[in-house]
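Researcher: Next entry in the queue.
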Amino acid sequence: MALQVAGGAGCCGCLPLLGPRRRAAAFLPPRAVASDGAAVEDGSKTVLGGSGVAVTKLGIGAWSWGDTTYWNDFQWDDRKLKAAKGAFDASIDSGITFFDTAEVYGAGVSGAINSESLLGRFIKERQQKEVVEVAIATKFAALPWRLGRGSVLSALKSSLSRLGVSSIESYQLHWPGIWGNEGYLDGLADAYEQGLVKSVGVSNYSEKRLRDAYKRLKERGVPLASNQVNYSLIYRNPEENGVKATCDELGITLIAYSPIAQGALTGKYTPANPPTGPRGRIYTSDFLSKLQPLINKLKEIGGSYDKTSTQVVLNWLICQGNVVPIPGAKNAEQASEFAGALGWSLTDQEVEELRSLAREVKPVMGFPVEKL
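Model: Structure for this entry, 372 residues:
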Protein backbone atom coordinates (compact mmCIF):
# COMPACT_ATOMS: atom_id res chain seq x y z
CA MET A 1 0.00 0.00 0.00
CA ALA A 2 1.53 3.32 -0.93
CA LEU A 3 -1.00 6.07 -0.49
CA GLN A 4 0.33 9.50 0.35
CA VAL A 5 -1.18 12.91 0.87
CA ALA A 6 0.30 16.37 1.03
CA GLY A 7 -1.12 19.11 3.19
CA GLY A 8 -4.11 16.92 4.04
CA ALA A 9 -5.18 16.49 0.40
CA GLY A 10 -5.76 12.77 0.39
CA CYS A 11 -5.90 10.28 -2.43
CA CYS A 12 -7.45 7.59 -0.27
CA GLY A 13 -10.87 9.05 0.41
CA CYS A 14 -12.61 6.53 -1.80
CA LEU A 15 -12.73 2.89 -0.70
CA PRO A 16 -13.83 0.88 -3.72
CA LEU A 17 -16.30 -1.95 -3.53
CA LEU A 18 -14.74 -5.34 -4.03
CA GLY A 19 -15.65 -7.56 -6.93
CA PRO A 20 -17.33 -10.95 -6.74
CA ARG A 21 -15.50 -14.20 -6.16
CA ARG A 22 -14.35 -16.22 -9.11
CA ARG A 23 -13.55 -19.89 -9.38
CA ALA A 24 -9.87 -20.62 -9.01
CA ALA A 25 -8.16 -21.26 -12.30
CA ALA A 26 -7.13 -24.86 -12.90
CA PHE A 27 -3.36 -24.75 -13.33
CA LEU A 28 -0.21 -25.85 -11.58
CA PRO A 29 0.07 -23.65 -8.50
CA PRO A 30 3.33 -21.81 -7.93
CA ARG A 31 5.86 -23.71 -5.87
CA ALA A 32 6.20 -22.64 -2.28
CA VAL A 33 9.41 -20.87 -1.37
CA ALA A 34 9.11 -21.11 2.41
CA SER A 35 11.80 -23.80 2.82
CA ASP A 36 14.37 -22.31 0.45
CA GLY A 37 17.13 -22.40 3.02
CA ALA A 38 19.96 -22.52 0.49
CA ALA A 39 18.88 -19.23 -1.03
CA VAL A 40 18.82 -17.64 2.43
CA GLU A 41 22.30 -18.93 3.15
CA ASP A 42 23.74 -17.60 -0.10
CA GLY A 43 22.21 -14.18 0.57
CA SER A 44 19.76 -13.99 -2.33
CA LYS A 45 16.73 -14.32 -0.07
CA THR A 46 15.68 -13.32 3.41
CA VAL A 47 13.14 -14.75 5.85
CA LEU A 48 10.01 -12.79 6.79
CA GLY A 49 10.30 -12.39 10.54
CA GLY A 50 10.13 -15.65 12.42
CA SER A 51 7.86 -17.30 9.86
CA GLY A 52 10.41 -19.37 7.95
CA VAL A 53 9.04 -17.95 4.69
CA ALA A 54 11.93 -17.00 2.40
CA VAL A 55 11.50 -14.20 -0.14
CA THR A 56 13.83 -12.28 -2.40
CA LYS A 57 15.50 -9.32 -0.69
CA LEU A 58 13.54 -6.99 -2.94
CA GLY A 59 9.95 -7.47 -4.06
CA ILE A 60 7.66 -5.89 -6.62
CA GLY A 61 4.62 -3.83 -5.64
CA ALA A 62 1.56 -4.29 -7.87
CA TRP A 63 -0.54 -1.32 -6.74
CA SER A 64 -0.49 0.27 -10.20
CA TRP A 65 -1.53 -2.89 -12.05
CA GLY A 66 -5.08 -2.35 -13.24
CA ASP A 67 -5.51 0.86 -11.24
CA THR A 68 -7.45 3.87 -12.57
CA THR A 69 -7.78 5.95 -9.39
CA TYR A 70 -4.18 7.05 -8.78
CA TRP A 71 -1.90 5.58 -11.43
CA ASN A 72 -2.04 5.20 -15.22
CA ASP A 73 -3.53 8.66 -15.86
CA PHE A 74 -6.90 7.24 -14.72
CA GLN A 75 -7.06 4.84 -17.69
CA TRP A 76 -6.29 1.15 -18.13
CA ASP A 77 -5.84 -0.33 -21.59
CA ASP A 78 -4.19 -3.20 -23.47
CA ARG A 79 -0.91 -1.32 -23.79
CA LYS A 80 -0.63 -0.90 -20.02
CA LEU A 81 -1.68 -4.51 -19.52
CA LYS A 82 1.11 -5.67 -21.81
CA ALA A 83 3.58 -3.44 -19.96
CA ALA A 84 2.52 -4.84 -16.57
CA LYS A 85 2.93 -8.39 -17.90
CA GLY A 86 6.38 -7.36 -19.08
CA ALA A 87 7.18 -6.11 -15.60
CA PHE A 88 6.17 -9.47 -14.12
CA ASP A 89 8.21 -11.50 -16.61
CA ALA A 90 11.25 -9.23 -16.31
CA SER A 91 11.10 -9.57 -12.52
CA ILE A 92 11.10 -13.37 -12.74
CA ASP A 93 13.88 -13.29 -15.34
CA SER A 94 15.94 -11.07 -13.01
CA GLY A 95 15.43 -13.40 -10.05
CA ILE A 96 12.84 -11.30 -8.20
CA THR A 97 9.99 -13.61 -7.23
CA PHE A 98 8.23 -11.76 -4.39
CA PHE A 99 5.08 -9.83 -5.40
CA ASP A 100 2.88 -7.69 -3.17
CA THR A 101 -0.72 -6.86 -4.09
CA ALA A 102 -4.03 -6.18 -2.29
CA GLU A 103 -7.71 -6.82 -2.75
CA VAL A 104 -8.43 -3.09 -3.13
CA TYR A 105 -5.86 -2.46 -5.85
CA GLY A 106 -7.80 -1.91 -9.07
CA ALA A 107 -11.08 -3.02 -7.46
CA GLY A 108 -14.58 -1.66 -7.90
CA VAL A 109 -13.81 1.28 -10.17
CA SER A 110 -15.03 1.62 -13.74
CA GLY A 111 -12.34 0.62 -16.21
CA ALA A 112 -10.09 -0.88 -13.55
CA ILE A 113 -8.95 -4.49 -13.29
CA ASN A 114 -8.21 -6.12 -9.95
CA SER A 115 -4.47 -6.35 -9.35
CA GLU A 116 -4.81 -9.77 -7.73
CA SER A 117 -6.54 -11.09 -10.85
CA LEU A 118 -3.77 -9.72 -13.04
CA LEU A 119 -1.04 -11.25 -10.89
CA GLY A 120 -2.84 -14.59 -10.94
CA ARG A 121 -3.15 -14.37 -14.71
CA PHE A 122 0.53 -13.53 -15.17
CA ILE A 123 1.56 -16.46 -12.96
CA LYS A 124 -0.71 -18.83 -14.87
CA GLU A 125 0.66 -17.74 -18.24
CA ARG A 126 4.25 -18.12 -17.03
CA GLN A 127 3.51 -21.51 -15.50
CA GLN A 128 2.34 -22.75 -18.88
CA LYS A 129 5.90 -22.26 -20.12
CA GLU A 130 7.91 -23.35 -17.10
CA VAL A 131 7.68 -24.03 -13.38
CA VAL A 132 8.50 -20.86 -11.46
CA GLU A 133 8.78 -20.08 -7.79
CA VAL A 134 6.58 -17.15 -6.81
CA ALA A 135 5.96 -15.75 -3.33
CA ILE A 136 2.65 -13.86 -3.11
CA ALA A 137 1.67 -11.31 -0.50
CA THR A 138 -1.75 -9.70 -0.46
CA LYS A 139 -3.75 -7.66 2.00
CA PHE A 140 -7.11 -7.52 3.79
CA ALA A 141 -8.96 -4.19 3.67
CA ALA A 142 -10.16 -3.26 7.15
CA LEU A 143 -13.39 -1.69 5.91
CA PRO A 144 -15.75 -0.42 8.65
CA TRP A 145 -18.54 -2.84 7.77
CA ARG A 146 -16.30 -5.88 8.04
CA LEU A 147 -16.69 -7.38 11.48
CA GLY A 148 -15.03 -10.30 13.19
CA ARG A 149 -12.53 -12.97 12.33
CA GLY A 150 -14.85 -14.52 9.76
CA SER A 151 -14.56 -11.44 7.55
CA VAL A 152 -10.81 -12.03 7.25
CA LEU A 153 -11.24 -15.63 6.16
CA SER A 154 -13.97 -14.71 3.70
CA ALA A 155 -11.89 -11.96 2.12
CA LEU A 156 -8.83 -14.19 1.99
CA LYS A 157 -10.70 -16.94 0.16
CA SER A 158 -11.88 -14.39 -2.40
CA SER A 159 -8.29 -13.21 -2.85
CA LEU A 160 -7.07 -16.78 -3.29
CA SER A 161 -9.73 -17.30 -5.93
CA ARG A 162 -8.69 -14.20 -7.86
CA LEU A 163 -5.04 -15.22 -7.58
CA GLY A 164 -5.80 -18.78 -8.63
CA VAL A 165 -3.86 -20.41 -5.79
CA SER A 166 -4.72 -22.49 -2.73
CA SER A 167 -2.42 -20.62 -0.34
CA ILE A 168 -0.11 -17.62 -0.27
CA GLU A 169 3.15 -16.75 1.43
CA SER A 170 1.89 -13.66 3.27
CA TYR A 171 -1.49 -12.19 4.27
CA GLN A 172 -1.49 -8.73 5.82
CA LEU A 173 -3.97 -6.37 7.43
CA HIS A 174 -3.78 -3.41 5.04
CA TRP A 175 -4.39 -0.77 7.70
CA PRO A 176 -5.72 -0.71 11.27
CA GLY A 177 -9.49 -0.73 11.40
CA ILE A 178 -11.66 1.86 13.10
CA TRP A 179 -12.78 -1.01 15.33
CA GLY A 180 -12.57 -4.79 15.48
CA ASN A 181 -8.82 -5.14 15.16
CA GLU A 182 -8.63 -7.96 17.69
CA GLY A 183 -11.05 -9.96 15.55
CA TYR A 184 -8.98 -9.23 12.44
CA LEU A 185 -5.86 -10.54 14.17
CA ASP A 186 -7.75 -13.64 15.26
CA GLY A 187 -8.77 -14.10 11.64
CA LEU A 188 -5.13 -13.95 10.55
CA ALA A 189 -4.26 -16.62 13.10
CA ASP A 190 -7.18 -18.77 11.90
CA ALA A 191 -5.95 -18.48 8.31
CA TYR A 192 -2.43 -19.46 9.37
CA GLU A 193 -3.65 -22.46 11.35
CA GLN A 194 -5.79 -23.60 8.43
CA GLY A 195 -2.82 -23.55 6.09
CA LEU A 196 -4.27 -20.86 3.83
CA VAL A 197 -1.29 -18.58 4.46
CA LYS A 198 2.33 -19.33 5.30
CA SER A 199 2.87 -16.11 7.24
CA VAL A 200 0.87 -13.14 8.49
CA GLY A 201 1.63 -9.45 8.70
CA VAL A 202 0.22 -5.99 9.21
CA SER A 203 0.60 -2.70 7.35
CA ASN A 204 0.66 0.94 8.43
CA TYR A 205 0.83 -0.11 12.09
CA SER A 206 2.28 2.25 14.70
CA GLU A 207 4.69 1.03 17.37
CA LYS A 208 1.91 0.47 19.93
CA ARG A 209 -0.37 -1.32 17.49
CA LEU A 210 2.57 -3.41 16.31
CA ARG A 211 3.40 -4.54 19.85
CA ASP A 212 -0.26 -5.32 20.59
CA ALA A 213 -0.59 -7.35 17.38
CA TYR A 214 2.64 -9.23 18.09
CA LYS A 215 1.45 -10.13 21.58
CA ARG A 216 -2.02 -11.28 20.52
CA LEU A 217 -0.69 -13.46 17.70
CA LYS A 218 2.04 -14.88 19.93
CA GLU A 219 -0.63 -16.10 22.33
CA ARG A 220 -1.91 -18.24 19.45
CA GLY A 221 1.59 -19.44 18.62
CA VAL A 222 1.59 -17.44 15.37
CA PRO A 223 4.61 -15.25 14.54
CA LEU A 224 3.96 -11.73 13.28
CA ALA A 225 6.19 -11.78 10.22
CA SER A 226 6.04 -8.25 8.83
CA ASN A 227 4.85 -4.66 9.04
CA GLN A 228 4.54 -2.89 5.69
CA VAL A 229 5.03 0.86 5.98
CA ASN A 230 5.99 3.90 3.96
CA TYR A 231 9.79 4.11 4.13
CA SER A 232 12.32 5.77 1.85
CA LEU A 233 15.40 7.94 1.97
CA ILE A 234 13.16 11.04 2.13
CA TYR A 235 10.43 9.50 4.30
CA ARG A 236 12.16 8.07 7.35
CA ASN A 237 9.21 8.23 9.75
CA PRO A 238 9.64 4.55 10.74
CA GLU A 239 13.05 5.49 12.16
CA GLU A 240 11.58 8.39 14.11
CA ASN A 241 8.33 6.88 15.47
CA GLY A 242 9.79 3.68 16.89
CA VAL A 243 8.43 1.33 14.21
CA LYS A 244 11.80 0.35 12.73
CA ALA A 245 13.36 -0.19 16.15
CA THR A 246 10.37 -2.27 17.28
CA CYS A 247 10.53 -4.41 14.15
CA ASP A 248 14.22 -5.05 14.82
CA GLU A 249 13.60 -5.80 18.49
CA LEU A 250 10.74 -8.24 17.91
CA GLY A 251 12.14 -9.89 14.80
CA ILE A 252 9.48 -8.48 12.46
CA THR A 253 10.52 -7.72 8.88
CA LEU A 254 9.84 -4.17 7.73
CA ILE A 255 8.47 -4.18 4.18
CA ALA A 256 9.03 -0.75 2.66
CA TYR A 257 6.40 0.62 0.29
CA SER A 258 7.04 3.76 -1.77
CA PRO A 259 10.80 3.10 -1.44
CA ILE A 260 11.60 5.40 -4.37
CA ALA A 261 8.99 7.96 -3.25
CA GLN A 262 6.68 7.14 -6.14
CA GLY A 263 9.42 7.98 -8.63
CA ALA A 264 10.59 11.25 -7.04
CA LEU A 265 13.97 9.74 -6.11
CA THR A 266 14.71 8.27 -9.54
CA GLY A 267 15.86 11.52 -11.09
CA LYS A 268 13.20 11.17 -13.78
CA TYR A 269 11.27 14.19 -12.55
CA THR A 270 12.57 17.74 -12.41
CA PRO A 271 11.12 21.11 -11.39
CA ALA A 272 10.33 21.67 -15.08
CA ASN A 273 8.91 18.16 -15.48
CA PRO A 274 6.97 17.11 -12.37
CA PRO A 275 4.87 13.92 -12.31
CA THR A 276 1.33 14.00 -13.66
CA GLY A 277 -1.91 13.09 -11.89
CA PRO A 278 -2.26 13.02 -8.09
CA ARG A 279 1.50 12.68 -7.62
CA GLY A 280 1.93 16.14 -9.10
CA ARG A 281 0.12 17.59 -6.08
CA ILE A 282 2.57 15.87 -3.75
CA TYR A 283 5.88 16.14 -5.58
CA THR A 284 5.53 19.72 -6.78
CA SER A 285 8.06 21.76 -8.74
CA ASP A 286 9.03 23.51 -5.51
CA PHE A 287 9.57 20.20 -3.73
CA LEU A 288 11.61 18.82 -6.63
CA SER A 289 13.79 21.94 -6.61
CA LYS A 290 14.70 21.32 -2.99
CA LEU A 291 15.31 17.65 -3.79
CA GLN A 292 17.91 18.34 -6.50
CA PRO A 293 21.05 18.36 -4.30
CA LEU A 294 20.12 14.88 -3.05
CA ILE A 295 19.37 13.68 -6.59
CA ASN A 296 22.76 14.97 -7.73
CA LYS A 297 24.51 13.08 -4.93
CA LEU A 298 22.61 9.90 -5.79
CA LYS A 299 23.82 10.19 -9.38
CA GLU A 300 27.37 10.84 -8.23
CA ILE A 301 27.45 7.81 -5.93
CA GLY A 302 25.70 5.66 -8.50
CA GLY A 303 28.31 6.57 -11.08
CA SER A 304 31.07 5.08 -8.93
CA TYR A 305 29.23 1.74 -8.92
CA ASP A 306 27.84 1.94 -12.45
CA LYS A 307 24.37 2.11 -10.87
CA THR A 308 21.37 4.38 -11.34
CA SER A 309 19.88 6.71 -8.72
CA THR A 310 16.97 4.27 -8.37
CA GLN A 311 19.31 1.39 -7.60
CA VAL A 312 21.21 3.49 -5.07
CA VAL A 313 18.10 4.51 -3.07
CA LEU A 314 16.84 0.92 -3.00
CA ASN A 315 20.23 -0.31 -1.86
CA TRP A 316 20.23 2.38 0.83
CA LEU A 317 17.08 0.84 2.29
CA ILE A 318 18.48 -2.68 2.13
CA CYS A 319 21.57 -1.40 3.99
CA GLN A 320 19.32 -0.45 6.93
CA GLY A 321 18.93 -4.15 7.70
CA ASN A 322 15.70 -6.10 8.20
CA VAL A 323 14.08 -4.14 5.33
CA VAL A 324 12.55 -5.52 2.12
CA PRO A 325 11.72 -2.73 -0.38
CA ILE A 326 8.83 -3.30 -2.78
CA PRO A 327 9.02 -0.68 -5.54
CA GLY A 328 6.17 -0.63 -8.02
CA ALA A 329 7.07 -1.77 -11.53
CA LYS A 330 4.84 -0.69 -14.42
CA ASN A 331 7.03 -2.12 -17.19
CA ALA A 332 9.92 -4.47 -17.91
CA GLU A 333 12.52 -1.71 -17.94
CA GLN A 334 11.65 -0.63 -14.41
CA ALA A 335 11.60 -4.19 -13.07
CA SER A 336 15.01 -4.95 -14.57
CA GLU A 337 16.42 -1.75 -13.11
CA PHE A 338 15.14 -2.62 -9.63
CA ALA A 339 16.99 -5.94 -9.74
CA GLY A 340 20.22 -3.97 -10.11
CA ALA A 341 19.83 -2.81 -6.50
CA LEU A 342 20.84 -6.30 -5.35
CA GLY A 343 24.22 -7.99 -5.13
CA TRP A 344 26.28 -5.01 -3.94
CA SER A 345 26.31 -2.55 -1.06
CA LEU A 346 26.89 1.11 -0.28
CA THR A 347 29.58 1.89 2.28
CA ASP A 348 28.59 3.00 5.77
CA GLN A 349 29.96 6.44 4.93
CA GLU A 350 27.79 6.70 1.81
CA VAL A 351 24.71 5.56 3.73
CA GLU A 352 25.20 8.31 6.32
CA GLU A 353 26.13 10.92 3.72
CA LEU A 354 22.82 10.32 1.93
CA ARG A 355 20.89 10.38 5.19
CA SER A 356 22.48 13.71 6.10
CA LEU A 357 21.57 15.26 2.75
CA ALA A 358 18.04 13.86 2.96
CA ARG A 359 17.50 15.65 6.28
CA GLU A 360 17.52 18.90 4.33
CA VAL A 361 14.37 17.82 2.46
CA LYS A 362 11.08 18.28 4.29
CA PRO A 363 9.17 14.98 3.86
CA VAL A 364 5.69 14.77 2.46
CA MET A 365 2.91 13.58 4.74
CA GLY A 366 2.38 9.82 4.87
CA PHE A 367 -0.71 7.64 4.91
CA PRO A 368 -2.72 9.19 7.82
CA VAL A 369 -3.58 5.89 9.54
CA GLU A 370 0.07 5.54 10.58
CA LYS A 371 -0.82 7.78 13.52
CA LEU A 372 -3.94 5.96 14.65
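Model: The radius of gyration is 19 Å.
Researcher: Noted, moving on.
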